[in-house]
Amino acid sequence: MNLTTYLRAGYPGLCIITPEEARAEAEIAAVCDSLQRNLHAWSSTEGLVDVRDNRVTTCPDPLDALQLLEGMFVSDQPRHVVLLRDLQLHLDQSDPLLVRRLKDTLRLAKANGHAVVLLGCRLKLPAELDHEFAHVEFRLPDAAQLGTVLDGILKSAKIKTLHEVLREAALQAALGLTTTEAENAFALSVVETGSIDPKVIAREKARTLKKNGLVEVVETATSLEDIGGLGLLKEWLTRRSGAFSASARAYGLPAPKGLLIVGIPGTGKSLTAKATAGAFGLPLLRLDMGRVFGGIVGQSEANLRSVIQTAEAIAPCVLWIDEIEKGFSGSKSSGSTDGGTSSRVFGSFLSWMQEKDKPVFVVATANDVSQLPPEFLRKGRFDEMFFVDLPDALERAQIWDIVIARHGRKPTDFDTVVLARACEQFTGAEIEAAFIDAMHEAYAEGKEPGPKDLVAAITATTPLANLMDGQINALRHWARGRAREAAERSTPRRNGRRVSGAN
Fold this sequence. Notes:
Blueprint: H1 3-9, E1 13-17, H2 21-35, E2 38-43, E3 47-50, E4 55-57, H3 62-72, E5 80-85, H4 87-91, H5 96-112, E6 115-120, E7 134-136, H6 143-156, H7 164-174, H8 179-193, H9 198-211, E8 215-218, H10 231-239, H11 246-251, E9 258-263, H12 269-280, E10 284-287, H13 289-292, H14 299-314, E11 317-321, H15 325-328, H16 334-337, H17 341-355, E12 360-366, E13 384-388, H18 393-406, H19 416-422, H20 428-444, H21 451-459, H22 464-467, H23 469-479, E14 484-485, E15 493-494, E16 497-498
Parallel strand pairs: 1-6, 1-7, 2-5, 5-6, 9-12, 9-13, 10-11, 11-12, 13-14
Antiparallel strand pairs: 2-3, 3-4, 8-10, 15-16
Helix pairs in contact: 3-5, 6-7, 6-8, 7-9, 8-9, 14-17, 18-19, 18-20, 20-21
């Protein structure tokens, strides 16, 4: 937190947005001690408290509190820092007298070197005050700060010091939580297991992050072997799987930024995002861009800051954004449709992608790349962009093997080469859907699915590629020269379609 710099520069109005009130107040108090400033704290329940001598002045009304501050701010000695808790809730009531009084207080604070700090969980100010306060970023606790919390839990539970590897795993599992949330997760682990279990902590983190609706931790055991085909893409990921290690940092290798995967729906883009986390050995976060945009002014930008802060706190990690074009497709017309909110969020996201120094590997997938703004696609945002086409005959045979094994059957019991030829133009998702359909029919007849059941399911399926042939050809045309092929093609194309049957 760069509060020291702001106070030394003479900023009269500062705003700190965080749910960790106690930790924020402790850090503010430490800064005031180092700068020899007098710290006061106000709330509607406690009144105005002089933190140094614990002297309390009763004033539950914020207008009365600001009047007291004006009396304190008439002189430049001693210099005061006043912490106002949850004043934003009072400003929500659109009280013009309170807004005017606060502006007068800030002007007096500026003239004499004092400062007012707003502390709360959200940043929502009237337009009259929007430019009066500077936002001070308050990051989530790092591993060292969480370590202090963990030590407190170990001491209270009378547990001896943990093995270094277990301690590191527990702290890594807790990254992205507030100190209070981490303390609760550590305590729950002790109650459930009698010790510190990183799996319990990771489970609680997943539950906590899912609660806010913006990002969630995805537990997945998917590996690159679970993907049929896409050999070039899998090779690219494999060669970068060690880029987040300590030896890579010692080598001077920058952490990879991310990967954009464009292609036809159902061809394994989302599965690849999950497999990327497995290949890198990193936790996987999923971001729903649609939930970032809120109806309250400033909420969308605050939501994006929260997402970035969480991802960087958990880093190294993989951040998966599915169908990203749906989140950013309206940024071009944002000024006339939503007051510029989409454009601002898009610009902030681009800036973070370009400048981020934390090891957050972004995997974005897109079905309709034409909806993405061109500046999103240029080099520097992502390390590489891959195009995923319909699987050819060889890849479809691999997919059949994987699907059959995934559902508890032996691939050797089926002629997957013949099945691959029978389902030309099928995506991987459609192949799995056909096998599941055959299983349902076979179960209803009290038998195991056989070749006839699979052929019947394939025949009954109309592949999406037949319905969107024009869009697929347009996407192939766009990708040529712009994106790398995700797979080596074993069969040539004829009039935009690959000829099946060649192996």
